[in-house]
Each structure stands twice: as structure tokens, then as C-alpha cells.
Amino acid sequence: MTSNADVDTACNFKDIPRLEEWPTFSDEGGYNHMEFMKTIDIFKEEFNIPDEYISAILHSLFTKSEKKWYHKMRQDHGKYSWPWWKEKINSKWANDSCRFKMENPFEDAIFNIERDSSMSWLLKQKDRLTALHPEMSEKMVHKRILIKCGGDLDHAITSRFIEPFSTEDHINAMEDITTRTKIGRNWYKSPIFNKASGKPISKPNKPQDRFPLK
Questions:
Q1: Of 25, 48, 55, 96, which is least surrounded by CB within 10 A?
Q2: Which candidate, 140, 154, 141, places its Cα nearest to that of 111?
Q3: Both 111 and 200 in a single domain?
Q4: CA dihedral defined by 103, 108, 110, 116, rounded to 10 degrees?
Q5: DSSP secondary structure letter of residue 200
Q6: Are 78 and 168 within one domain?
């Protein structure tokens, strides 16, 4: 006799996203292994997808040199569940050399209110920081990101913090302040270039100059 749970699972199985809707993975993004695993976990939970199904389609989700890595691992270790593959992906792409590749982009990512979208910039920095320091608390992640916004904007957003402060709260506060006020518009200064040589004669502001990390 088929239980209601079995029926629900079967119905969800029919609704599983098509293969082209699944995330693909290559190392070009520097930290996109986190997004790759997160998206698969969401699909797994949303549609009650069994680990066996995920393992069976992994060969189609890896691209470029990462596909070669997958084939080598599959050949050496055989068939394993999705949790096992997540552990191996983390071991491969969350090591010291990969973290080093991510550190400079994060440190250089200064929010420019005239150029950057609040939501996309914030989410990108959060992905980078989470990949660099997966053990870091949500609160500390947001504090580290705020330092890169400049003192006035940092203070304005922080003043709206109400515990617990979520990523959605951070985005909403940042978008509201940057679109409805002039706070932070004079903080970022682009470098001034010498017209003859084309070389910069001044450096852009960096958050660590005014707000060093402790």
C-alpha cells in the first residue's frame, strides 16, 4: 500500500527541474562551489530528491577541468552519495590556495554607490567571505562587509540593526539609504590620473585606511 508520503515524494519527483535548470560548476568563479552546493541542497529539499538521483547527474553538472576531476574521483572511489561529494568538493575548493585567490578580490571590493548595485554587491561579498571563513557567524560577516562601505554609510546601516539582523534586512537598509539619501556619496573617490602619462597620481580611498580590521 502506498502511503501519502510516498505519493508526495513521487509527485515532487515528477516536478524535478530539468537538467539544464541545474547549476553547473567550474572553478572560474573562485567561490562558486558554495553556490553550486547550496542550489543543489535547495533542489533536494524542495523536491525530495534522493541522493542517488543527484549522484547520477553530477557528471553533467561539472564542466571544463572540474569534469576531469569528477571523472578521476569517480574512477578511484566509485559510487557515493551527495553528502560524500559535498565533503570532497569542500576539500578541493575550500583549501588554502583557493582561499588565497579569493582574499584579494574581497579586500579590493569597495562599495561605490555611484556604480554598484547594493544587493548584488552585498551578496557577492557575502559569498566570498563565507567561502573564505565558513565558520564565521552571520553577524560578523555583515560587520566585515559594512567596513567596506565607508564610515557614514556603515554607521547609517548599523543604526538600523535590530537583532537578529538578516541578510535581507541588510539589503533593505542599504538600498533604502543609498536611494533615498546622499549618505556615502562622497566617501569613495576614484583615482586621479595624469593626462600625459596616464598613470594615477592619487589612490582611491580604501576602508582599511580609516577603519582597520582588528
A1: 96
A2: 154
A3: yes
A4: -90
A5: B
A6: no
Which three three-digit cell numbers place residue 16? 524535478
Terminal C-alpha separation, the chain: 62
- Torsion sign, CA atoms 117, 118, 124, 128: positive
In total, the chain counts a number of residues equal to 214
As for how many domains the chain has, the answer is 2
Q: Which of 94, 126, 153 is the last residue of a domain?
A: 94
Neighbours of 43 (CB within 10 A): 18
Q: What is the rounded distance in angstroms from the CA atom of residue 98 to the CA atom of residue 96?
A: 5
Write out the H or E segment, with its range, that includes residue 99. helix 96-108
pLDDT digits (tens, 9 = 90+) for 189-212: 555 556 666 655 555 555 444 444
Give the model confidence (pLDDT) of 94-141 as tens digits. 766 667 777 778 888 889 888 899 999 999 898 888 877 878 888 899
Task: Give the C-alpha separation, 113 to 122, whole Å.
Answer: 12
Alpha carbon distances (Å) from 25 to 31, 42, 52, 98, 132: 10, 16, 19, 15, 18
